[in-house]
Every structure is written in C-alpha cells, then in structure tokens.
Amino acid sequence: MTPDLVVESFVVGPFEENCHVLRLSDRAETVIIDPGDEAPRLLAHFEKAGWAPVAILNTHAHLDHIGAVKALQERFKIPFHLHPEDLPTLGTAPQAAHMYGVPVPDVPRVDRHLAHGETLELAGLAIRVRHTPGHTPGHVCFVVADVVCSGDALFRGSIGRTDLPGGDTATLLASLANEFLTLDDSVKVYSGHGPVTTIGRERLHNPFLQGLSPGHAVDV
Worst-scoring range by mean pLDDT, 7-16, 25-34, 103-112, 145-154? Predict the structure, then answer.
C-alpha cells in the first residue's frame, strides 16, 4: 500500500503562526516547516510521537516564523534551509522583536540555501521549491504531492501584507498568478496563519486573486 502524506500543524506564539510538520504515514522521519515559536512544546510533542526530524525548511524569515528554529536545529542536529534573499530579513529579527515587544529570538544559522525550481528529497518526500517573493524578497512555497505550504503569501480569503521592509505588491501578485494559480484546484493550501484551504477555493473566492491569470504580467 502506498503511504500517505501526513501534515500536522501547530499554532504557536503570540502571532498565532502555523508550524507544519510533514511526513509519510509509514515513517518516523519528518520535515519541519516554519517553526515560529514554542520550541519546548514542539520538542515535547515530537519526542512523545517518536518522530525523527531531518530538516527545517522556512518559507521566509520573519520574526514569527523563526523563533523555534535554533532550538530544534541544535536538539536534532538538522540543517536549516532558507532562500538567500531572505538573509537580510533574518538578520533584522532582533530589531523586529523589540519593535513588537516580544522576546528576542535566537537567530539560527542557515545551513543550506533554497533555490527556485529545485526538488528536495527528504524523509521520503519530494519537496518542490517555488520562489514566491512579494511578502519578503526570499519568500518561497513548498509543494509536496497535493499540498502547498504557502507561508505568508496566500491565506484563506487573503494574501500576505506588503507594507513591511522588502515587501512589494506587484511582485506578490505576480507570484500568486504564476506560482500558485498554476497549481491544480485540488491542491490543499497550508498557510502561515489561519485555516487550511484549497487552490480552487481561493481561485473562486479570494478577492485578491480575481483577475489574475497564470503566465500573464500583473498590472498594479
């Protein structure tokens, strides 16, 4: 019998960020995506479940997505993956924490740079990387079978904000048109905040996607 893709999500931290954990149903190896906070809680759950994390992948490096990375990286001795264009964003996490009045995170070491179009073979999964800038310059999404981890580019009924440093509305809309709307309607969207949705639902009902066409330039 072919093992199923399993996605388990944890809402963590004051920004209610979604950390997603991917694995095959017949394996203990897992891939952690965007562990934003509450490292002790995540560690306790992983150890109780008998999971064996093999890598941390981040869609981007905003404060609310990186807070637990270093603790998990060091506990499991696993590599942290990030797109190189988000290295400046990662470096400003302490200043952002001061601005928002939240604890300053330990800034993790980036072990491997992600590249658009590559496929990562991890924990028995084929994880396709798509560069989706606009929310941040180095934002990416991860496509695995019938799932996309969209980070803060696409939400149920909304899209990522572009008023933070490095954000750009035209760039984000182009990413949505050319990297998300090219996916099948049945693909499930696990975003950085909020509930799960599908590409089909967002194509029909998300007001920010109306008028966008894959492969076409976006006028703003």
Answer: 103-112
Mind listing the pLDDT tens digit for each residue in 35-76?
999 999 999 999 999 999 999 999 999 999 999 999 999 999
Distance CA 32, CA 103 (A): 22
Q: What share of the chain is helix, strand, coil (3-state, %, to 5)?
A: 30, 30, 45
In a 10 Å sphere around its CB, with 0-12 CB exposed, 13-18 middle and 19+ buried, how is residue 96 labelled? middle
How far apart CA 11 and CA 38 sit, in angstroms, is: 9
Q: What is the pLDDT of residue 1?
A: 54
Q: Are 31 and 21 in contact (CB under 8 A)?
A: yes
Beta carbons of 150 and 191 less than 8 angstroms apart: yes
What domains are there in the chain, each with its CATH number?
5-209 (3.60.15.10)
- DSSP 3-state of 44: helix
Q: Which two structure tokens, joined as six digits, stand for 164? A: 């933070």
Q: How far apart are CA 160 and CA 170, in angstroms?
A: 12
Residues in the chain: 220
Q: Which amino acid is located at 2 in the chain? A: T
SS3 72: helix
Higher pLDDT, 214 or 117: 117
